[in-house]
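$ ./design --mode recover --in tokens.txt
reading tokens...
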């Protein structure tokens, strides 16, 4: 008789546990494409500060004046990129993005000396190759902000 009581009580506890797990699973909202992400996009200002700080570590000998001008060039670039990305127009975005990159790179050419600009272009080309091949470049670690 004790065995039967033990078996019934164990079965009831198991059934209650499984039922409560099923109820919990049904009340947890499913993650869908419409669920808002907890990640918030950085502002152009934040992106320009982050990217400038990173670039300052990569390129030796940048003066305070150069850093200020580079940050301003990045700010213009990221504001332009936000406008391009938010545009409803689908055609011509690739060309607009390339134009924004070229404008930024030309500004850097005016700001940096030849050696600094050469180093910048090495980093830039490596990143572009990284984005195309999806392999980690040697000059970057995983915490590096991406140039989007």
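writing sequence...
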């Amino acid at each position: 008789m004790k065995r039967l009581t033990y078996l019934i009580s164990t079965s009831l506890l198991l059934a209650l546990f499984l039922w409560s797990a099923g109820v919990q699973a049904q009340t947890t909202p499913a993650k869908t494409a419409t669920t808002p992400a907890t990640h918030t996009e950085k502002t152009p200002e934040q992106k320009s500060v982050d990217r400038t700080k990173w670039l300052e570590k990569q390129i030796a000998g940048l003066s305070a004046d150069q850093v200020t001008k580079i940050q301003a060039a990045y700010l213009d670039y990221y504001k332009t990129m936000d406008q391009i990305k938010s545009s409803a127009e689908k055609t011509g975005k690739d060309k607009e993005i390339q134009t924004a990159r070229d404008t930024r790179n030309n500004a850097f050419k005016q700001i940096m000396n030849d050696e600094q600009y050469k180093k910048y272009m090495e980093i830039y080309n490596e990143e572009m190759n990284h984005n195309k091949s999806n392999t980690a470049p040697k000059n970057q670690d995983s915490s590096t902000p991406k140039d989007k």
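exit 0
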